[in-house]
Amino acid sequence: MKTNKEKILKYISGQLTQEELIIFEEELRKSNQLKKDYDNIKLQLDDLSNRSEFETNEMYFTNLLPRVYQRIDKKKRFWKFGGIYYLVPTASAVVVLFLFLLNTKTNYDTGYKDLANEVVNNLSDKEVSDKYSRELEADPADYAFNQNNDELNIQIPSDLELNNDSYTRLIGNPLANEYSPLRNLSENELETVYEKLNSTTSTKVRK
Amino acid sequence: MGTVQDNDFELVNRFLSGEEVAFNLIVKKYQKKIYWHARQMMGNHLDADEVTQEVLIVIFNKLKNFNFNSSLYTWIYKIVTTRSLNQIRKKQIKRFFPIDDKEEVELQDKHDIIKELDAREKLDKVKKILEKIPPKQKQIFIMRNFEDLSYEEISEVTGKSVGGLKANYFHALKKVVELTNENK
In the CATH hierarchy, which top-level class contains the domain B117-184? Predict the structure, then answer.
């Protein structure tokens, strides 16, 4: 039966080659067992496929179209009127979020630019040479506290030589970070600040 | 077939020129086919009803883009098959969340459009077999066995090759026969 079943199902599903098809149909005529198995499977499948006999409630199909129109109208009304109740708060939220992000971005930019400008443009050679030796070994955080009249100085002790060690201390020190806009900068921006500070300080000291 | 297509062509053009009644005629013409495909795929009336309504709404909204690259019937069929498969996926996701099965069965019975109890039992038997078959095999089984579509027509609807469809149908048949024997 198993071999017959496989063959019969391949026949029904159209998977037999032309040659196999001729052999199968020939066998179907000659073999009673194959014929019996084939009829049995066909009967099973036909038994499942007689939905046309089902008597249905025609009211369902009569009412279907009005129900569909109701849903279409509902959607149209939503976009025409109801949507505003959803769109206005959503749009407001988007605007607020956009402004927030814009503001944050500006802060980052300003913070970064101020820091860079302060270091690159505003330090005199004298300041650098005076403070370079005096503050070289100071902890950036202590220095920051001592200079708290000037917010920018609190944020970053700009006249220190920022070697790797002090850079790490500056970034890693919680006291320094607490007052520092550095925590608002990305890793790349920090890296740039550090490089600029380092090169500017070195140049000025060399002078 | 030519007359049917000509008629569809006329109906679509009438709808596009603003005659909403043409849409009503299209619905009347295809609603039972849509419903029965969805019904066999979903196995119950409420889901089939949901799919049918969704399909008719899609037809209403998208008919303006229909360009007669295929017959209207094939185009509608594509929508029904896709929506039915989507609905099955939704149901599978819902199974992760506990629901009151008893309540759902009662709801199904209350709304079912099949009048006779015998017919309902028969349909239930088919449902129990078909729900154990993977959705895509079930889809081909339904199209071949219940809707008498040719492989070429199914290929146009599903976008699958005829060879692939034959293989899928063979596996579907095999499972259906096994399950029918088990349920005897």
Answer: mainly alpha
